[in-house]
Amino acid sequence: MRFVDEATIDVVAGKGGDGCLSFRREKCVPFGGPDGGDGGNGGCVYLRADSGLNTLADFRYTRIFRAEKGQYGMGSQCTGKKGEDSFIKVPIGTRVFDDETDELIGDLVQHDQELLVAQGGEHGLGNLHFKTSTNRAPRRITLGHPGEARKLRLELQVLADVGLLGMPNAGKSTFIRSVSAARPKVADYPFTTLHPNLGVVDIDRERSFVIADIPGLIEGAAEGAGLGFQFLRHLSRTRLLLHLVDILPPEGNPAEQVVKIIHELEKYDPELARKERWLVLNKLDLLLPEEQAEHCQMILDELQWQGKVFQVSAVTGEGCRELCYAVMHRFEELAEIAAMSPPEEKSEP
Hints:
18% of the residues lie in helices and 26% in strands. By secondary structure, the chain is α/β, with parallel strands linked by helices. The protein has 2 domains: 6-156, Spo0b-associated Gtp-binding Protein, Chain: A, CATH 2.70.210; 162-340, 3-Layer(aba) Sandwich (Rossmann fold), CATH 3.40.50. The strands form 4 sheets. A 6-stranded mixed β-sheet has the order 12-13-11-14-15-16, sandwiched between helices. Helix 2 crosses helix 4 (289-303). It is rod-shaped.
């Protein structure tokens, strides 16, 4: 199935049912009187997160969703039936925006989480409500209100703990194949990855994390070069970025490529650029063992890198397991820090 991470849909809630104009006429009830019931409320439209979905591709063909309208009121003071609500399934990680105002309506991050996106119309009143001491036979009702209608923009941000960042052909797809059961396409030409891929890295039975591989960035991505920033949003939820670097790129200098990626990241989102990022020098298998340490140190000296650094070969698996253990240990450290931090005090209104 084609990966789709953006969609625009129209949602229309149900109209409320009109009130009923009716009078009670029975043989044994000499005075009778008004007995028109109220209409039913219109159905609402909800979005519901579903862990079984991983793309918004279903919305390529169906773009308009309507809830059922409320039933009209009836005689004998009978209220009309409420319209059925409409539930639209979306993948976990979907952000919902009002397409006209660009307002963020909600963020669906848990399975079966629901979000009301269109409120059903209010019901109309039957003539029973307008009976008074001076008007015992009212011929007045109210009509049901129309349901809310909105145009929504859906954006999918995959939920992952670790995001892979780097130039095309840096070995990101090979790395995720090496450490997880994910099987993205791998080839010896740029942009083999055309959409995000997720993989689960199992450390042991009860310790694991999710890693996301996105298409590579190139210089000028801010102006739309390559695939641009189309998929960078998928890294915004991650807790840690692994910046993979080809230590022997066919063109250019490894250190210069790192700087270019950092600049493009800052153009897209300074907050994302400040996220914790580790440098992963990949493709050690291209060097002789006695050359690896010196070559990698040259790259670090040119960058003046102060953060964590790992040297791996995604093809042979060298250093990959150690990197995964370090990532898991970092997440456990962050969990301990969060547990020790005092809860935020809520200010009095």
